[in-house]
Design a protein that fits this description.
292 residues; Spore Coat Polysaccharide Biosynthesis Protein SpsA, Chain A; two-stranded antiparallel ribbon; 6 helices; 13 strands; 23% helix; globular
Length: 292
């Protein structure tokens, strides 16, 4: 069994991504790790080279700044990296996602267990979405709680906007796609995108909105959030990020005068329905496989 990791980056250092820690977190179980690096104006390339890691293979690409259709540029860059992988399993990590070292054996065991099981095309992970500081996680139907990050190379898959995979069934029409069939692992991915400085986050948002053809996105202010969607995180963080983010005490404090948006009011009701009926109303981009 061979495992390929992959990601795509551009100006990852200046945008505040813990990209080195992200790559290092999965590298122990990978036979190779493909980085598709867009032309950058910071030290992203130098930082990758400083790792001096033979498993890492860097592909250099140039982004088409005229491509503004619904994130398709991100789909292109993700697939450039994916199609350069040669493993049986392909492990995609975004540059602000980190694995905990204690979970690596469980992940690799699942890959071994389902390698030859044709019912299983992908592996889905649970998520900790850290918000504002490293002690706080965002939890509401608005925040996806599970997502696929590993897929078999034998599956005809692509990512139309980089966010998730679409699968084309073998011997069926190329016109119709579906979500992959995935096993849900009780393994979390630690997502730190909303812990970076507001300055770095707004720089990242400026880049993203360009490629989504949306110039009306508001400036990010972490305090402008429904306080009921925030929970205290008490578990251990991966060792790799222990010194990367600023130390903090207690729960991140939202603005007490924040006026809820229409979406936040909707998600409050969704959270109540989840509590009353045991539902999960968050979005998922896979079909769960039951093996028992």
């Amino acid at each position: 069994m061979k495992i390929s990791g992959f990601t795509f980056l551009r100006n990852a250092e200046s945008l505040g991504f813990p990209f080195i820690q992200s790559i290092q977190s999965v590298l122990p179980i990978c036979d190779e790790f493909i980085v598709n690096l867009g032309r950058s104006d910071d030290r992203t390339l130098e930082m990758l080279q400083a790792l001096n890691e033979s498993k890492i293979k860097i592909i250099h690409s140039v982004w088409n700044d005229k491509m503004r259709a619904r994130g398709f540029m991100y789909g292109q860059q993700k697939m450039i990296a994916q199609y350069s992988c040669v493993g049986d399993w392909l492990f995609y990590l975004e540059a602000d996602e980190v694995l905990h070292e204690k979970d690596l054996n469980a992940i690799k065991q699942a890959m071994n267990d389902y390698l030859n099981d044709d019912r299983v095309e992908a592996l889905a992970f649970r998520y900790h979405h850290f918000y504002g500081n490293i002690n706080t996680v965002a939890w509401s139907p608005a925040w996806y709680r599970q997502e696929t990050r590993v897929i078999k190379s034998s599956v005809r898959s692509y990512a139309p906007d980089g966010l998730f995979w679409v699968v084309l069934d073998e011997h069926k029409s190329n016109k119709n796609g579906r979500y992959p069939h995935a096993i849900q692992l009780e393994v979390p991915i630690y997502h730190y995108g909303w812990v970076r400085s507001e300055q770095a986050m707004n720089a990242k948002v400026d880049q993203v909105k360009h490629f989504w053809g949306n110039d009306t996105v508001k400036k990010v202010d972490y305090s402008k959030i429904d306080p009921r969607s925030l929970r205290l995180f008490e578990g251990p963080h991966p060792a790799l990020v222990q010194n990367f983010f600023p130390a903090a005490q207690g729960l991140f404090q939202a603005d007490p005068n924040h006026v809820l948006t229409k979406r936040e009011r909707k998600n409050r009701w969704g959270a109540k329905l989840e509590k009353w009926f045991g539902w999960d109303l968050s979005k998922r981009h896979f079909s769960a496989v039951k093996t028992k």
